[in-house]
Design brief:
A 6-stranded mixed sheet has the order 7-8-10-11-13-12, covered by helices on one side. It contains 7 helices and 13 strands. The chain has a single domain, classed as 4-Layer Sandwich (Purple Acid Phosphatase, chain A, domain 2). It is of the alpha/beta class.
């Protein structure tokens, strides 16, 4: 008999430090319509309800563009969001605009969160060490889940030099296979989730080249997917 368990996978991405419920544009029947979206209090309520209804079997990850974007966030260099984000019950995060505060401040903000910042493709130029851990392992409802973060790889190419000073960014293509293998063979995970801020087209290309990822949480390009896309055996949300 095959033992089965359920897991609710939820994703936050590209919230750009909008603290409160606000109007956003959606396409409906070929027309633009506006309706309320976002709001961290609302998100917290939804996640709490999901966890209560599903025996806490909920994975909640953030694909980035979270600590930067509104006046309050910029004025405090992202610090105003830390207690709010830490109260949401997030499991892991990766990044893009978070680098706008400079690597040192970003590292400080990440250390203040109560969940890991992950980036398999960002290195310190001097030491060649990862700026953040490339992966983490989370156990939910008896299921071991390998979480891999891949940050935006355009920070050093399209953004001001101060954002990436002393850092190197890679596409992540070469780093992923050995980490996937290690998570399967050594960590004995049941599921591998990629938390990405590359963008939907870039994620689809990467997933056509890298095998072994079960779910990709895709951020950056603001695509609204109402049901998962698929690339090979990988579900893309």
């Amino acid at each position: 008999m095959v033992n089965r368990t359920s897991l609710i996978v939820t994703q936050l991405n590209d919230s750009h430090a909008y603290f409160e419920l606000h109007q956003e544009m959606f396409w409906q029947g070929g027309q633009a319509v506006y309706r309320p979206a976002g709001g961290y209090a609302r998100m917290a309520t939804i996640i709490k309800q999901l966890r209560a209804a599903n025996q806490e079997r909920v994975l909640f990850c953030d694909c980035g563009d979270t600590l930067h974007g509104t006046h309050r966030a910029l004025k405090t260099q992202g610090q105003a969001l830390i207690p709010i984000l830490s109260s949401l019950g997030l499991d892991a995060m990766t990044a893009h605009w978070e680098f706008a505060y400079g690597p040192a401040t970003f590292k400080q903000r990440a250390a203040e969160l109560n969940y890991p910042m992950l980036a398999v493709n960002v290195y310190d130029q001097a030491t060649k060490a990862h700026l953040f851990p490339p992966y983490s392992v989370k156990e939910i409802g008896g299921m071991r889940i390998g979480l891999i973060g891949i940050a935006s790889n355009i920070v050093d190419k399209t953004m001001p030099p101060s954002y990436s000073e002393g850092l190197e960014f890679t596409p992540g293509r070469e780093e992923l296979p050995p980490i996937i293998d290690m998570l399967r063979t050594q960590e004995q995970v049941d599921l591998i989730v990629l938390i990405s801020h590359l963008g939907f087209p870039q994620d689809m290309k990467l997933l056509s080249e890298v095998q072994g990822i079960d779910i990709c949480l895709s951020g950056h390009t603001h695509n609204r997917l109402y049901k998962p896309a698929r690339q090979g055996k990988t579900l893309v949300i």
